[in-house]
Structures are given as structure tokens and as C-alpha cells.
């Protein structure tokens, strides 16, 4: 039978609920349990696909093509279970489903209400996420509820999980509440009052926490833990301290050593083999003992919020560990690069242009791709980064001045990147679109496979077939491929069905390491193996650094 752990948050957001949930899942997985994570987002958007990265950080894409919250990226990086469409849903999605049912007449004339219709729908979605009734059913599903207790928006979610816990019985569900214990410098004290209040708020809703994860900038001493326990009705061993650490890989051990997984397994009556966190200890060792450092320039437009490129940042760090180097990433604003490439980019060991939408800053990215090509600096272009590399090559090498993407200039002379109108989706269905299609969920999304041309850089990385996740509307225009090829650009992978361009690169004779990919490899990188493309990119950065030092 599937058991559930509900993780709620109090006092303020951004305390690391995603990492805490993923860490608990990882510890339980190390005890031999089959685990998944589900994220409930209280906002009205049907999914985060249409939200600005400035507002919401990165949109994480699953194999089956769901555009999801970035916490799902943490989940996939922390546990073995892969995330699917059903692992993330929002208030908007719940209402969409309830309203569809209402229009179909499924409620048989009843007045449709938050309780029970919306709350029942939430429970159905949670069960679906846990795979109940399918061969994928897990032993434990950890359900992270977005937002903060006390928000109007998250109330139906909290009410739904309260009902679920009542229906399932006390030993089949557990509640973990993440709270904040601020250090007040003037008083020289940790303050427990906000925690007392948030737990009261939770109890008003009818939820008694089994464990409190108390975030603070330091360890919470015995005395404060006792006090918190007394005021919150949580036994003292359930009051767990979560202090600031320099790497997220330390969190699973931190929680385990204070007995969080033991407490959860007791509550849920789960008999398991002991915890084994060796792989986490190895990761911590690896991050703390690099043999060198490489500096990467990431030239994008959402640079103020590095969460916008969360998975790319993580993938670069994973690849650093595989190559035993620390990776320092500088996020450079593409708008400020144009005309100053030489000063701004000269000191880096490699350059990366990540994905992006809209025309702002595109010319700066094109200059960046040119700089990397001409100066033979390792270049990785991801999605838009591949498109700008193609535009740059068309303009400056293939003799196609004015080349552009129709996304940025619909009437450009040479639309080397253009909208495709029909493609096959991750689930095999044929999808069509035009310039007026809805923005939400209409992109080429999810995992698709392509054949890789032998003898190319891409082939040395991926072998014969590459399967990666997509999230974009525009594609390299087939009508220009021959011209680009003749000018020396190598098209090293094409999708199996539509023959869409997946990877472009420069031959080794011309450039040591220059590649652009239409997909998003960052979503499949894990701390354990890294990702072959990022591993190769960081390796190229290390080699570039060595060569530069030798030449100096
Ligand atoms: N804006 C481009 C497109 O829609 C690239 C998208 C991306 O980088 N994810 O095709």
C-alpha cells in the first residue's frame, strides 16, 4: 500500500522545501523503498510554461513533455524515479479538470463546490501522481505543497491532504512542516515565535505535524528545540534543525543523523533495511576536493535570477565533479556583451549560451557565438544557443547577411530558423501549430530521438542515437541546410521522423569544441553520472585552459 508524507511550509517561502522533500525521498530510497515526489502549486496558471523565468525560475521539462516547477528538477537529481506529467499540478489544472467534468455533466446536477469537489479532485491527482492502481505504484509518495501555510491559495490543498490523512488512517500518512527560526542579531537570540505561530495555523486547519524542519542560519540548540516542542506539540526528536550548508548534498545526511527517516518509517510502520548514504558522502567529498577550477561564461538574458538556469548550473557542476574541477559560472547579460565581447569573454575557459525566448539580447548572443567560433573557445549552445550559432554561421560564413530567426524578425531575408507547423509529440501524437497558436503547451516538448552522424563530435559523445528533451517552437529551416553544410557547418543529428536539425557543430579541423543542440540536455544530468555532453564540455574547458597556460 502506498503511504504519503505531506510537506508543508511556514513563515516565509524560499526556505528550501524542495531540497528538504527531495532529501527525505533520497534517504527513504536508500532504505530500499520505492519513492516518488509530487509537487502541488497553488497558483492559477495551468502549468508554469507561460510564466516568466524572472517570476518563477526555470521551467523543468519531463520526458513525457510536461512543463513543470523547477523543484521537479531537484527531485530527478535526488532520486531514481523519473518525473512525469502527473508529478506536478496547480490549482489551475485542478479547476480545469473540475470545470471540464461540470460541463460534461459528471456532477449530476449538484452544486460544484470547493469541498468536496475541488478537494476530491486534488486527492485523485495526488493518487495518480503516486501511481496508485498502476504497476508504477510507489511505497512512499512525498507530496510537497507549494506556498506558505496561511495563504488563501493553498487552503484547498491543505484541506484535501487533511481529509486524505483522515481517510487513510494515522499510520499511512505523515506531516512534515518546514519552518523558519530567525537569528536576531541585536538580541543575540534565535526566535521560535514565528514557528509557534505557523504550527498553530496548521493546527487550525486540522493538521498536526509529525516533524518540524527548522531552518536557521545555524544549528538550533537543545533549549530552543525543547521550547519549540512544548509549544507545537511535536515531540522533541521531531524538532529537526536544518542549518545553512555550502552544498545541498549535505542535506540528506543532516536530516538522517537527526532521525527524520527513522521517525517517518516508525510513523508509517515501514520495516526497511538501514539507510545507506555512501553515494551522498562521496558527492560531498568530490565537491570539497577539486583538483582545479574552470570558469564558464554563461551568456543569457535572465541573469538576475540564477534559478532561471537552475538545471544548466547543476549540470555544469555535475560535469565539474566528473572532471574533478570546481566550475565557476559567471552569468553575463547578453544585452551588455555586444561590441565588448573581447573584454568580457577573453578570460573564460568556455562559453555557454542557454535557452531563451523573445528578441531581447539576441544580438549579444550572436556576437558571443561568433567570438567563441573565431577565438576557438569551447562553445555549448543550448536550444536558443544553437539557433544563434546557426544564425551567426549563416551571416558570417555562409554568405547570408540578414539571416535570422522568424521569432525575432518575421520578415528577415534569410529565415535560417523558422516555425515548424507539424511535429510528432513525445507520446507519438501529431501536433500542429502556427504563429497564432496558444502559448501554453504548444511547443515541441519532451523526449525525442535522433540519429547521430558517425565521425562527428556529437557521435563521440552520444553514440548512434540521442534522446533528449525539448522545449521550443522554432527549428533550423531545412531549406538552408545545404547552404550551411556547403559553408562547413556540420549537421550532426537529425530527428528520426521529421529530420529536424538536432545538433550542429564545427569540424575538429576548424575548432576544438563547438556544438549547438536544439534540445535541453541539462534536464537529464544527475550528480552521480553528470551528463555526457556537459562532461565533454567541461573536459574541453579544462583542455582549453591547459593550452592557454602552455601558450602563455
Ligand atoms: N525561443 C526559441 C524557440 O522557441 C528557443 C527556445 C529555447 O531556448 N528553449 O524555438
TrEMBL record:
<protein>
    <recommendedName>
        <fullName>CTP synthase</fullName>
        <ecNumber>6.3.4.2</ecNumber>
    </recommendedName>
</protein>
<feature type="active site">
    <location>
        <position position="522"/>
    </location>
</feature>
<keyword id="KW-0547">Nucleotide-binding</keyword>
<feature type="binding site">
    <location>
        <position position="245"/>
    </location>
    <ligand>
        <name>ATP</name>
    </ligand>
</feature>
<feature type="active site" description="Nucleophile; for glutamine hydrolysis">
    <location>
        <position position="383"/>
    </location>
</feature>
<keyword id="KW-0460">Magnesium</keyword>
<comment type="function">
    <text>Catalyzes the ATP-dependent amination of UTP to CTP with either L-glutamine or ammonia as the source of nitrogen. Regulates intracellular CTP levels through interactions with the four ribonucleotide triphosphates.</text>
</comment>
<feature type="binding site">
    <location>
        <position position="407"/>
    </location>
    <ligand>
        <name>L-glutamine</name>
    </ligand>
</feature>
<dbReference type="InterPro" id="IPR029062">
    <property type="entry name" value="Class_I_gatase-like"/>
</dbReference>
<dbReference type="Pfam" id="PF06418">
    <property type="entry name" value="CTP_synth_N"/>
</dbReference>
<feature type="binding site">
    <location>
        <position position="13"/>
    </location>
    <ligand>
        <name>CTP</name>
    </ligand>
</feature>
<dbReference type="GO" id="GO:0005524">
    <property type="term" value="F:ATP binding"/>
</dbReference>
<dbReference type="GO" id="GO:0003883">
    <property type="term" value="F:CTP synthase activity"/>
</dbReference>
<comment type="subunit">
    <text>Homotetramer.</text>
</comment>
<comment type="pathway">
    <text>Pyrimidine metabolism; CTP biosynthesis via de novo pathway; CTP from UDP: step 2/2.</text>
</comment>
<dbReference type="InterPro" id="IPR004468">
    <property type="entry name" value="CTP_synthase"/>
</dbReference>
<dbReference type="GO" id="GO:0046872">
    <property type="term" value="F:metal ion binding"/>
</dbReference>
<dbReference type="InterPro" id="IPR033828">
    <property type="entry name" value="GATase1_CTP_Synthase"/>
</dbReference>
<dbReference type="GO" id="GO:0042802">
    <property type="term" value="F:identical protein binding"/>
</dbReference>
<feature type="binding site">
    <location>
        <position position="13"/>
    </location>
    <ligand>
        <name>UTP</name>
    </ligand>
</feature>
<comment type="similarity">
    <text>Belongs to the CTP synthase family.</text>
</comment>
<feature type="binding site">
    <location>
        <position position="71"/>
    </location>
    <ligand>
        <name>ATP</name>
    </ligand>
</feature>
<dbReference type="GO" id="GO:0004359">
    <property type="term" value="F:glutaminase activity"/>
</dbReference>
<keyword id="KW-0315">Glutamine amidotransferase</keyword>
<feature type="domain" description="Glutamine amidotransferase">
    <location>
        <begin position="305"/>
        <end position="539"/>
    </location>
</feature>
<feature type="domain" description="CTP synthase N-terminal">
    <location>
        <begin position="3"/>
        <end position="270"/>
    </location>
</feature>
<dbReference type="GO" id="GO:0044210">
    <property type="term" value="P:'de novo' CTP biosynthetic process"/>
</dbReference>
<keyword id="KW-0665">Pyrimidine biosynthesis</keyword>
<keyword id="KW-0436">Ligase</keyword>
<dbReference type="InterPro" id="IPR027417">
    <property type="entry name" value="P-loop_NTPase"/>
</dbReference>
<feature type="region of interest" description="Amidoligase domain">
    <location>
        <begin position="1"/>
        <end position="270"/>
    </location>
</feature>
<dbReference type="Pfam" id="PF00117">
    <property type="entry name" value="GATase"/>
</dbReference>
<feature type="binding site">
    <location>
        <begin position="14"/>
        <end position="19"/>
    </location>
    <ligand>
        <name>ATP</name>
    </ligand>
</feature>
<dbReference type="InterPro" id="IPR017456">
    <property type="entry name" value="CTP_synthase_N"/>
</dbReference>
<dbReference type="GO" id="GO:0019856">
    <property type="term" value="P:pyrimidine nucleobase biosynthetic process"/>
</dbReference>
<feature type="binding site">
    <location>
        <position position="144"/>
    </location>
    <ligand>
        <name>Mg(2+)</name>
    </ligand>
</feature>
<feature type="binding site">
    <location>
        <position position="356"/>
    </location>
    <ligand>
        <name>L-glutamine</name>
    </ligand>
</feature>
<keyword id="KW-0479">Metal-binding</keyword>
<feature type="binding site">
    <location>
        <position position="227"/>
    </location>
    <ligand>
        <name>CTP</name>
    </ligand>
</feature>
<dbReference type="GO" id="GO:0097268">
    <property type="term" value="C:cytoophidium"/>
</dbReference>
<keyword id="KW-0067">ATP-binding</keyword>
<feature type="binding site">
    <location>
        <begin position="191"/>
        <end position="196"/>
    </location>
    <ligand>
        <name>CTP</name>
    </ligand>
</feature>
Amino acid at each position: 500500500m502506498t503511504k504519503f508524507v505531506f510537506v508543508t511550509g511556514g513563515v516565509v517561502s524560499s526556505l528550501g522545501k524542495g531540497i528538504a522533500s527531495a532529501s527525505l525521498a533520497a534517504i527513504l530510497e536508500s532504505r530500499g523503498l520505492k519513492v516518488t515526489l509530487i509537487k502541488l502549486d497553488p497558483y492559477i496558471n495551468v502549468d508554469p510554461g507561460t510564466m516568466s523565468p524572472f517570476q518563477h525560475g526555470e521551467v523543468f521539462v519531463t520526458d513525457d513533455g510536461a512543463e513543470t516547477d523547477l523543484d521537479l528538477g531537484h527531485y530527478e537529481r535526488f532520486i531514481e524515479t523519473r518525473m512525469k506529467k502527473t508529478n506536478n499540478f496547480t490549482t489551475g489544472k485542478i479547476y480545469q479538470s473540475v470545470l471540464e467534468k461540470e460541463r460534461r455533466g459528471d456532477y449530476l446536477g449538484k452544486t460544484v463546490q470547493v469541498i468536496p469537489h475541488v478537494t476530491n479532485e486534488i486527492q485523485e491527482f495526488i493518487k495518480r501522481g503516486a501511481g496508485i492502481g498502476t504497476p508504477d505504484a510507489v511505497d512512499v509518495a512525498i507530496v510537497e505543497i507549494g506556498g506558505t501555510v496561511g495563504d488563501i491559495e493553498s487552503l484547498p490543498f491543505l484541506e484535501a491532504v487533511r481529509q486524505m490523512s483522515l481517510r487513510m488512517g494515522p499510520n499511512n500518512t505523515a506531516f512534515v512542516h518546514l519552518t523558519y527560526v530567525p537569528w536576531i542579531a541585536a538580541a543575540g537570540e534565535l526566535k521560535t515565535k514565528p514557528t509557534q505561530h505557523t504550527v498553530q495555523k496548521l493546527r487550525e486547519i486540522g493538521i498536526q505535524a509529525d516533524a518540524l524542519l527548522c531552518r536557521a542560519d545555524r544549528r538550533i540548540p537543545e533549549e530552543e528545540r525543547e521550547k519549540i516542542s512544548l509549544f507545537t506539540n511535536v515531540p522533541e526528536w521531531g524538532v529537526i534543525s536544518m542549518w545553512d550548508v555550502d552544498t545541498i548534498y549535505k542535506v540528506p545526511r543532516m536530516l538522517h543523523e537527526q532521525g527524520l527517516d527513522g521517525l517517518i518509517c516508525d510513523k508509517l510502520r515501514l520495516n526497511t533495511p538501514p539507510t545507506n548514504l555512501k553515494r551522498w558522502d562521496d558527492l560531498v567529498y568530490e565537491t570539497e576536493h577539486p583538483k582545479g577550477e574552470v570558469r564558464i561564461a554563461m551568456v543569457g538574458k535572465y541573469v538576475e535570477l540564477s534559478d532561471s538556469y537552475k538545471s544548466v548550473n547543476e549540470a555544469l557542476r555535475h560535469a565539474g565533479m566528473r572532471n574533478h574541477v570546481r566550475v565557476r559560472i559567471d552569468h553575463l547579460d547578453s544585452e551588455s556583451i555586444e561590441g565588448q565581447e573581447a573584454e568580457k569573454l577573453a578570460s573564460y575557459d568556455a562559453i555557454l549560451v542557454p535557452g531563451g525566448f523573445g528578441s531581447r539580447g539576441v544580438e549579444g548572443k550572436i556576437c558571443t557565438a561568433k567570438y567563441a567560433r573565431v577565438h576557438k573557445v569551447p562553445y555549448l549552445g543550448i536550444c536558443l544557443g544553437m539557433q544563434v550559432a546557426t544564425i551567426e554561421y549563416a551571416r558570417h560564413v555562409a554568405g547570408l547577411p540578414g539571416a535570422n530567426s522568424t521569432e525575432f524578425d518575421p520578415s528577415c531575408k534569410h529565415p535560417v530558423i523558422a516555425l515548424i507547423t507539424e511535429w510528432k509529440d513525445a507520446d507519438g501524437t501529431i501536433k500542429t501549430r502556427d504563429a497564432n497558436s496558444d502559448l501554453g503547451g504548444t511547443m515541441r516538448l519532451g523526449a525525442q530521438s535522433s540519429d547521430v552522424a558517425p565521425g562527428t563530435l556529437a557521435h563521440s559523445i552520444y553514440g548512434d542515437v540521442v534522446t533528449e528533451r525539448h522545449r521550443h517552437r522554432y527549428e533550423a529551416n531545412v531549406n538552408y541546410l545545404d547552404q550551411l553544410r556547403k559553408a562547413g557547418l556540420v549537421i550532426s543529428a537529425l530527428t528520426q521522423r521529421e529530420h529536424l536539425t538536432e545538433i550542429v557543430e564545427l569540424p575538429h579541423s576548424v575548432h576544438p569544441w563547438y556544438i549547438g543542440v536544439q534540445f535541453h540536455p541539462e534536464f537529464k544530468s544527475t550528480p552521480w553520472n553528470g551528463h555526457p555532453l556537459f562532461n565533454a564540455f567541461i573536459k574541453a574547458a579544462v583542455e582549453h585552459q591547459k593550452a592557454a597556460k602552455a601558450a602563455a
